[in-house]
Fold these 4 entries.
Entry 1:
Amino acid sequence: MDLAAGTELGVGLMGCGNVSAQYLPNGPRLDALRLVACADVRPQARERVAAEHGLAPCTPEELLERPDVDVVLNLTPPDLHADVALRAIAAGKHVYTEKPLATSVERGRAVLDAAAAAGLLVGCAPDTFLGAGIETLRTALEGGAIGTPAIVQVRMLAPPPERWHPSPAFLYADLADGYFLKSLWLTLRLAFQSMVCAVLLAIPVALAMARTESRLSLRHRESWSTSAGVAFTSTVAAPARRSWSSSPGSTCTAR
C-alpha cells in the first residue's frame, strides 16, 4: 500500500482486553486513521467492544483477511505480540503493537526482518520514559527552561497491577527465560542479605550499650556507698527539767 501524505488507514484492533480502553477513545482524534473492526478469541469481548464503538466484530483470522484493514493494532498479551505481528505481516498488514514488541530480542528481530522483507512498517508503543509527558519535560530541561536543576524529587505512587488489571496473570508469567522467577530470587536474596547485615550491625551496638549501662550502674553504686558513709550529727537541747513545790502557796520554777 502506498502511504502517501493524507492517506487514511483502516485499522483493525486485535485484542479487546483492558488496554484497548486506552486506544479506542483516542482513535477518532487521529485524522489519518479509521477504526474499522475488532477481533478477540473471546466472542463476548469482541461483541462488547464492537457495540460500544461501532466496529465490525470478527475472529482474528477474519480480521487479517479484511481488505479494509491496512494496519493491525496489536493489543494482545505480551507473550503473543510477536506471533500476532508475524501473522499480520504475512497477511500483508502493517503492525503497531503495544509494548513490548516481543518478549525476547530474537523474536523482536524476527518481526523486524519479516516486515523489512515484505516492505511493511512496524511500530511499537514507547515505554513510559519515552512518553509525551516525560519527553516534554526532558526537552524543557535541556532547553534551559528553569536553568540548572539543583534538586530533583521523583515519586512513583501506583498500586500493583492486580489492583487495577482484570487479568494480571500474564504480567507474572514465566516469560523471557524465567525473568520473573529470576527477579523474585534476586529480591529475596537481597532481602536476606539486608537482614544479615542489620543483625551484624546490631550486635556491636548492643554490646556497646550493655558496656555503657554496666559502667553507669557501677558509678551509681559507688556514689551511693560514699553518701552512706558520711556521718550526720545534730545537737538537740535537753528539755528543761521542771520541779513543783508541794508546799501550798509556793511557785513553780524550771531548771
Entry 2:
Amino acid sequence: MPSPPSQNKRLILSVLLKLLIFLGLLISSIPFFSSLFQTDSDEDKVLKHFSAHDISALERGSIQKIKQSSFEVWVYYRTLQDIEQIKTMQHNLLRDPLSKLSQQPSAMLPEFRSLNKDYFVFVPNESMKQCQVQPDQSTSGHNGFSEVCYRGFFDTAGRALTAYGSQQQKNLMVPAYQWRDEKTLLLDRRL
C-alpha cells in the first residue's frame, strides 16, 4: 500500500491531468461552436451577388464592355461635353426624360441615370427587339448611342430621343451596381 503523501501526490496529478484534458477539449471546441453561430453581415450577403470589375484603364469618351453570365454590360466614361449636354438637354426632346417608364435602380441620379455622373453603366440593347446599340454622334452634334432596328438614338444617359426610332422604345436599361471605390465597379450578377 502506497504511503499517504504518495497517494496525495497521485490524486493531485490525476486531478491536474483531468483538468488539462478538459481545458484542451474546451479550447479546441471554441472554433467549432463559433462557426455554428457565425452569420454573414448584411453587406456580405449583398456583395456575394456582385462581381468586381476594374475600370481604371477607361478614358473619357471610351467604353469598357463587361460580359456577365447571361448578358453584357457597357461602362461609358462620359466626356465633359457629354455631361454638359445631359444637363442642358430639353425634356421635350426626350421620350421619357425622368425615366419613369424605364428599368433602372431607384438610387440613380435622375438626369444622369447613374450613381456617378462621369460613368454611364448600361445594358447595350434597346427595349423592343433587343437590338444592340453602337456609339454614335448624331448630325446635331450630340454624342450617344444608335441602333439599326428602329433607327433609334439615345443620349449618353441612355434616354431615347423622340425624333428617332419607335415611340414604344424605352430608355436603355441600367443594371444594379455599386462602386467599391473610384475605379472598381461592382455589378449585380442577377438581371
Entry 3:
Amino acid sequence: MSRDRRGKSAKSGKNRKSSSSNRHPNQIRVFVATPGDVSTERGILRELLEDFDLMFDGLETINIRFVGGETIVPSLGRAQESINKNLRRADIFVGIMWNRFGSDTGKFESGTEEEFKVAFDLWKERGVPWVIFYFSDVPSALNSAEETDQRKKVLAFKKTIQLVIFDVSDLSPNVMIEIGIRSRHAPFILLTRNIESLPFFLKTYHCLVYEPTVAGINNAIPELADLIRKTLAPKNKVVAKEDYQVHELAM
C-alpha cells in the first residue's frame, strides 16, 4: 500500500455515532492489525470506516464497526488473548505493515503476526473473516540495528504470503523490485489502470485492466476472482473456493 504519510492524525471520532454494546443484526466488524509505525494509516482506515457507517446512519440495513486493540477492554491473563477473543468475532481482517514487525507476545514474534495467524486459521476453518494484508512501499531510512532487524522480519513474513496482487498503474520503483523478487519463487497478479503505459517486460505477464471507479472495480471483481483461482489451482485440478485465498494487496 503506497500513500503519502500525513503529519496529522485522523479525527478522534468524538462526534461520531457511538457503538452499542449489543451487536447490530447486520453489523460488519472490521478488525485492523498493525504495528506501531503505521498509526497514520490505521487512523485513516478507522475514519474511513466511521464515514461509511455514517452513510448508513438511521438505516437498518448495515452497521460497520472498527475493531482493534484500542477498542478492547483488557482482562486478566495474557493481554493478547483479549484481543484474539474479539478477533474471532470479526467479519473482515485487515493487516498493515511498513518497517516494524512488532513486539513479542509470548507465542509469536509480534501481536500483528499472531492476529494474522488466528484470522487465517479461522478463515480456513469456517471461511470468515475475509483476510487482507497491505504492505506499505513508502521509502524510509533505517537508522539503527534494531530498525534493520524489524524490517528483515517484515520481509521474511511477506515471503510467506501465498499470493500477491500488485497494482502497477503508477510504476512504483519499490513495486517493480518486489515483482522481480516475487517472480523467482511465488505467484502474483498484476493490475493496472492503463495497459499502454506499462513497460514491455510487464506486458509479458497477464495484467488485469480496471477503471478506477466504483462501477469499474465492481466489474473487475469477477475476472479477478477467476484469475486468482487459475493462478493458485494445481495443474489439471479444479479447486473449490475455500482452497485459495488472497493475503496481500500491494498498492
Entry 4:
Amino acid sequence: MQKTKTLFVTSFWPYPINDGGRDVAVAILEAVKKHSNVDIVAFIQEKSFNVNKASLDKYTDSQVFLIKWKRVPKLMWLKVWLKGKSYFFFRDYNKDYLKTLEKLISQTKYDHILLDRIIALLYVDDIFKLFQKYHNKKPKITYFSHNVESNLVKAYWTSERNPIMLIYKLPVLPEILLSSRFEINTMKKINNYSISYFDMQFFKDHGVKNIKVFPPAFFKGQKPYATTLKQEKQFKLYISMLANFKWYQNVQGLTWFLKKIWPKVLKHVPDAKLRLGGKAFHPRLLKLINKTPNIELLGYIKTEDKDTFHSQDALTLAPVLIGSGLKIKVLQAFRQAVPLVVTTKALEGFASQVYNIVPHSDDPDKFADYVIELLKNPEKRLKLRKEMYKYNKDHFDIQNMNKFIKELLNGKKTKAVKRK
C-alpha cells in the first residue's frame, strides 16, 4: 500500500525533549513517520538551533522547516486586541511560518494535516484558504490538543491572591474571553483529539462535537528499579521531581508542598531528602528553597539521562493544583515504575483504575501521611512499583500510539479511548 502524505505542523521543534509537550509531540511524530511520508514545520529558538541539528538525522526522509521564533512585542497587544484576537495566542503568529506553509501546500496535496499544540491552531484559517487556492478542495485537518489552553490563561488570573499583582494582571481579563472564543470556534471547524477525557468533555460542553481522546501512550516502558524487597530496602530516602520550575503550575505546586507538607515529612522522616531536577527556577521559589532544609538542586537533566533520573528514588511527586491535560510527570513515573504521590488534579483525565493505584489527596496532612508511609514502608513501595509497571505495560506503552496513528492515517475509524 502506498504511503499517505502528511504535513505535521507543530509549535516548536520537539528536540531536545525537555518538557511534557515535546514528549507528546515526539511520540505522535514518530508514529506518523512510520505510516506516512511526512513534512514538518516548526518554530525553533535561535539559541537551540545548533543543539538540535543532530535530531534532524532522525528525519532524513522528510522535509523539515525550522522557523526562527520571535513574538509580537508586548507593546503591540492593543493592536492585536483591536483585531478581536487574543494576544496570548497571536503573539506567536509569524509571517515566515505562514510563507513556509504556503510553499509546501502549493507543491503538495497532502492527505492529512496534523496540528500539534495551540500555536499550530493559529494557522487553521490560512490552511483552508491555501488548500482552496492551490487544490480547490478542503484539507483534512486534525488537531492534537494538549490542554484547554484558554483555561490556563484564566488560571493565571483567578489563582492570584496579591491585590497589587491583580492590578498588574488586569489586561488578562479580556484575554480570558478572547482566548476561549478563538480556541473553541477554531476547533469547531476541524477534527480534534484531546489528551484528556476531562478536556474533551469541556470542549464538548462548549460546542466542539468533533472531538475524541487519543491514547496517553508516549513512552516505551522500563523494568522497575526494584523487583524484590531486598532491592527496595536499599533505596535511600530520596524524593525527586523533574520539572521546569519557572512554569507557573510547577511553582505553585512545589510552593504548596514546601510550605504545608515538607515540614511534617521531615518531622517524621528527618533523613528524607527532596531532589529537584531542572535548569530554571522562579526567583520567588528559589528564595523559599534556599531557606528550606534537606533539598538538593540537581540542575539541568540531559535528555539521555531522563530515563534513569528516578533510579535512586524511593518515590516522586506531582503536587499539581491547576492546569488541564494529562500530567506527563505522572506518565513518566508509570513508565519507570517509581512510587508516586499526587494531588487529585494531577490525575484528572486518567482512568478510575489509576486513581485506585496512586495515593492522592488535596489535603496537606493526608498528602504528607502518604509520603511518610511510603518512605517508611518498603513493602508498600514495592507493591506500588509492581502495580504501576503492570498498568503501564497494558495501557501506556508506545505501541498503543502507533496503532492509533496508523488507523487515523489510513482512514479507519479510531476507537474512543476509554478513561472511566
